Amino acid sequence: FFLDLTMKYLLSVATAALSIGLTTAAPAIVWKAGSSPASPSHISEQIDTLSLLDATLNNDDSAAASSTGLSAVIFLVGRDADGSEGLVSMASSGKLPGVQEKHAHADSIHYHVDGVESSRTVAKDARLSGGMNVVEVALDEFHRKLASLAQSEQEEESVEDAAVEGGKKVNKVEQKRRRAISEADVLIVSVTDKDNAAAIDSSIVKAIDSKVVQNVILSSIRSTDEVKRSRRMAVVDKMNKSARSASAGRRRRLDEDNENNNDDGNQQQEEGVYYVNMTPNILAGILFFFMFVMVTHLGLSCMNMIEGQDVYVKKLPAIGREV
């Protein structure tokens, strides 16, 4: 009952986000290997895909797992035939019973993830966040990758040698594709409503239970209406920024024109202005200099006129009889 209630809550939140016109209503459920919280963390704050992948992939456990297994497997549920979000409709119709059972063991649930427009954009963000090898695969390629990781190197080579169809070897394109998948650290599995719902559910559960997968992310590509609204908002934001920059440029040009006009006006108002060789301040400085020279000369002359005693006697006259 609790699991059904939680899934219904997830559905109601996503439906409410769509109804009020939010452009970041793509949900995402994250499972981490070795993490068994009592209950998942419900996060309603807006977060972009790059930040979500950066927080999930850039940790010590993911780095260690990338050398021996898969750092992450990202399941992206495509849009429905009418362009609406596919994960909500699949969860509400009960097509993912295994995911509902694993829902309580999730590490975190994000209700507003921005930037989930396609598997290509998610792959780009995954490469930017972790710097790992990211490959977009289908369900059958995902199962082959898990099987190859579970086998030893010798068994894997035998499987590759046995990959012959009708007595012909696999072509170079297929070999390159398999090599890229074998070297991948992050797999992005794209599924649609046309795929078998039971196969999708079992694949997600298998990835969660696998020991070679460190992180599992289940998300959905945003609906067509949300993407259109997001792009319209981006265009409007860009136009507003352009208008603000243009108005700022016009204000700067008007200020410069006003300053030039003021300078021209100052140059034209020259009535009653006379140019002289000496200002009152300069004349006062010169007069003060001459006064200082005269006073100094007078003082030195007076000091030279003072004469000292030139007659010396053995006995000085009595007081009062100096003359």
UniProtKB/TrEMBL annotation:
<feature type="transmembrane region" description="Helical">
    <location>
        <begin position="282"/>
        <end position="306"/>
    </location>
</feature>
<keyword id="KW-0812">Transmembrane</keyword>
<protein>
    <submittedName>
        <fullName>Uncharacterized protein</fullName>
    </submittedName>
</protein>
<keyword id="KW-0472">Membrane</keyword>
<keyword id="KW-1133">Transmembrane helix</keyword>
<feature type="region of interest" description="Disordered">
    <location>
        <begin position="238"/>
        <end position="269"/>
    </location>
</feature>
